[in-house]
Write a structure and sequence with these properties.
Strands 2-3-1-4-5 form a 5-stranded mixed sheet, with helices on one face. The protein is elongated and about 50 Å long. 44% of the residues lie in helices and 12% in strands. With 166 residues, the protein is α+β, with helices and mostly antiparallel strands. Bound molecules: FE2/S2 (inorganic) cluster. The site of FE2/S2 (inorganic) cluster has 12 residues, from helix 5.
Length: 166
């Protein structure tokens, strides 16, 4: 695993925010790695452990405890569907089913520790997310960093067609 210089600078800067114990930087470091690589590999876990003078098992425990960390590669476009109350009441579970059908994704093997599912062509992956802070425009979802509100069945279809052509 190669850590680009820019990412390494960010990591070293984050560690300075924890002068008492750099071990406390484990969460932000994992977030930085996931944001850059898309998921956390075994190699990434070993690297973070060495960087923070932790045992790899200690880092692994953090990764497996928080469902927000992914241990499998996402698709080119990673979709997050909010499932918290306002969105659930506005149809986010139907939206999830709809998006899975449109992208050919099978979520039957997902669980708490393996929350993402990937389309057969690797173009899309999907997972539920907790409140994305736009409850008044439910249901909402994200395609990578792009945010979409009031996602109807027609809008979902248009989004998959649009991103699928990229
Ligand atoms: S409940 Fe979905 S954005 Fe808050």
């Amino acid at each position: 695993m190669t850590i680009p210089t820019e990412l390494l600078s960010k990591i070293d800067d984050v560690i300075t925010h924890y002068p008492v114990s750099k071990r406390s930087a484990v969460l932000p470091l994992l977030h930085l790695l996931q944001h850059h690589f898309g998921y956390i590999t075994d190699e990434g876990i070993t690297w973070v452990a060495a960087k923070l003078e932790l045992e790899p098992m200690q880092v692994m425990e953090v990764v497996t405890f928080y469902p927000g960390f992914r241990q499998a590669a996402p698709g080119k476009f990673h979709i997050r569907v909010c499932r918290t109350l306002s969105c659930a009441m506005a149809g986010s579970f139907e939206l999830m089913d709809n998006l899975c059908q449109l992208t050919g994704i099978d979520r039957s093997h997902t669980d708490h520790h393996h929350s993402i599912a990937v389309s057969p062509d690797g173009k899309f992956s999907i997972e539920f997310a907790e409140c994305l802070a736009s409850c008044g425009t439910a249901p909402v979802c994200m395609f990578n960093d792009d945010f979409f509100e009031g996602v109807s069945a027609d809008k979902a279809k248009a989004l998959v067609a649009d991103y699928g052509s990229k």
